[in-house]
Amino acid sequence: MKIVVADDDPQMLGALRIILGAHGYDVTLARNGKEALTAVVNAHPDLVVLDLGMPQLSGVQVIEAIRGWNTVPILVVSGRTDSADKVGALDAGADDYVIKPFSADELLARIRALTRRSGGTADDQPVVRFGDVSVDLGDKIALVHRDGEDTPVRLTPTEWQILELLLRNPRKLITQRTMLTDIRGPQHVGDTGYLRLYIAQLRKKLEPDPTHPRYILTEPGMGYRFQPDTELDQ
């Protein structure tokens, strides 16, 4: 497994290279934000580990740049303990946040959790089709067939999380609480307006008529449900 590690502290870079290398990871090091972006483009990593306070480009700028085209898991490792820094990194598209100093066991556990979440066998990563939409959950590609052509649909990391949760549980009610816990953490279970916004964006991008959704359905006061074509056609 390939991991890009970005930090402007040479001692931290050396320590992470030793820890990760000893556990069989193929590590590419970057000393600033620009090097981190270059490494992600060239190395095609399975995971990115980065600090926030880097020169040339900050960690948040790197996250935002990566999320413009790539859904690779991103683990922030930072000495910043302010909740605003953590929220800013997660909102930019990071998947997890570890505060320095940390134990090697904690870091490795976080990495395993992120790679389990993003990995899987071919059987675990199906292609789901509904209406004019085809979604490859393994390669994170969504296509809409219109005017005789398959057009890629750009989804944000949060939109992907919501869509994947729905598609992997066809016809099942996914409560608002479950969605928000999965996406933002248990401290954000009351952010239902945030969730409605992303559901609306998904419908605009994927539903034939977003004002009358056929596939991404609302269960008022409870949550949301993905309704496949097969059930609708019965």
Describe the structure.
Helix 2 (33-43) runs parallel beside helix 3 and helix 6 crosses helix 8. The chain is globular and about 55 Å long. With 234 residues, the chain is α/β, with parallel strands linked by helices. The protein contains 9 helices and 12 strands. The protein folds into 2 domains: 2-118, Response regulator (Rossmann fold, 3-Layer(aba) Sandwich); 123-232, Winged helix-like DNA-binding domain superfamily/Winged helix DNA-binding domain (Arc Repressor Mutant, subunit A), CATH 1.10.10.10. The strands form 3 sheets. It has a 5-stranded parallel β-sheet, with helices on both faces.
Concise overview:
This protein has helices spanning 10-22, 33-43, 59-67, 83-92, 104-118, 157-167, 176-184, 192-206, 229-232, and strands at 2-6, 26-30, 47-50, 74-78, 96-99, 127-130, 133-136, 141-146, 149-152, 173-175, 216-219, 223-226. With 234 residues, the protein is an alpha/beta fold.
User: Under the CATH scheme, which class of the largest domain?
Assistant: Alpha Beta
* Number of domain modules: 2
Percentage of residues in helical conformation: 40-55%
* N→C terminal distance: 44 Å
Could you give a short account of the major beta sheet?
Answer: 5 strands, parallel
Total count of strands: 12
Strand order of the largest sheet: 2-1-3-4-5
List the keywords.
Arc Repressor Mutant, subunit A; single chain; 12 strands; Rossmann fold; 41% helix; alpha/beta; five-stranded parallel β-sheet
